[in-house]
Specification:
Length: 98
Amino acid sequence: MTRIICCPILDRKAIDQHKEALQSAFAGGETIDIDCSPIEQIGMAGLQLLASAVRTGQRRNQTVRLVNVSQPAHAAFALAGMRSILLDSSAPVDGAVA
């Protein structure tokens, strides 16, 4: 299993770092856990990165889970209408709001 820890501010500036880590993790073929607990702010680029990671995992038949999702990240997922895309195939949300 590979674990990737998100930046507190997951925006366009933080994407390159996470993109490289995800590419390496996908090359390994293992389960990928993306720890979203540090996220305090997330922009559209961050949402797109996470959605792409989840969808890529589905296409490759590789498990990608968003774990320990912070309340700000969870709220952003819902506001962007991406909650089901990002969380349906992921681990339970920490402190989830139903």
